[in-house]
Amino acid sequence: MVEFPVVETEGTPYExxxxxxxxxxxxxxACFERLCPVGERTQExxxxxxxxxxxxxxxxxxxxxxxxxxxxxxxxxxEDILLMNLSVELWQEDLYMPRRNCxxxxxxxxxxxxxxxxxxxxxxxxxIICHQVKPQSGYDFxxxxxxxxxxTDGGVNGAGLAQSNSSLESNQCNWAGFPVFIMARYLxxxxxxxxxxxxxxxxxxxxxxxxxxxxxxxxxxxxxxxKTVSQAVRRLKEDTxxxxxxxxxxxxxxxxxxxxxxxxxxxxxxxxxxxxxxFDNLTVLARDVKRDLEGTFSFLRNHTSPxxxxxxxxxxxxxxxxxxxxxxxxMLWIARGYPCESEFASIKLCAATGEGE
Length: 357
Description:
Blueprint: E1 6-11, H1 13-23, H2 25-35, H3 43-59, H4 61-74, H5 78-85, H6 87-90, E2 103-107, E3 113-120, E4 128-135, E5 141-146, E6 154-157, E7 161-168, H7 180-190, H8 194-201, E8 210-217, E9 222-227, E10 231-235, E11 245-246, E12 249-252, H9 269-285, H10 293-300, E13 318-326, E14 331-336, E15 345-348
Parallel strand pairs: 1-4
Antiparallel strand pairs: 2-3, 2-12, 3-13, 4-5, 5-6, 6-7, 7-8, 8-9, 9-10, 11-12, 13-14, 14-15
Helix pairs in contact: 1-4, 3-4, 4-5
């Protein structure tokens, strides 16, 4: 049995939010206090939230409808739910925020797989839910996310697309942009292939904090999308000498490895050093690991020093969960806590595939 709470929702965006809010009410209230500390809810941040809200209203109004539903279901002010959903962008430089400094991996082969460690602060697993969504419009999908948010940490949909993501900080800011992790959730709901997801993602410039978004589909196509105020694409290809690829394995941590994005890279030196150690470790591990489910689990449980993927405090990061996803089977294997100490439990998307928009 999956140890994260499983929240099942369906219907219109507002109905999905309403059910989410009712079923995860206590977690949402606790998550708001975690992501938006009392002394930091300044007028300036609320003003920026209003600016971003206008961008979302123009480009993805369904996301705001869902937030309204979450607010009503959880009996929380909508303004607080909005602030929580934009906390990644609004609190970019604050060290108490969950850094989302995760490791993401894509494995091609007979069964394409995506994988991720969720590396944040100890105890943050209490805010995470496994969310199963049957939208009125789009594809059914299963993913992990923070309670009360319309983000995603990654998951699978019923059309054969899977995703995982990790943070990528920028040294620039674009308040006319769009929240990258809300966009990432939208890709799961509306896209059936990597190519389709890339064409959609090109339309969304980030605000500041962005992500390495790893996309894989049931055909074995994989990319890492480096996305902040700009973007670059690394596609799995036959050139095994490319940074972030070893044979049929593609991966990313929390820095950019493309010429286009490196000048925009932000983040503290400690976190970037941690990221580069994990990246270098993956480059070595990927040469010998089996390209199957057990081999992918072994990645997530690795403790090589420096650069262990299962983190127990390195760079003040702790792995509070991990998952592997199969786009072919629309299934996730999820571990709560340190994956070296936890068993992976499977959960399958249990709904018929919806129709794409």
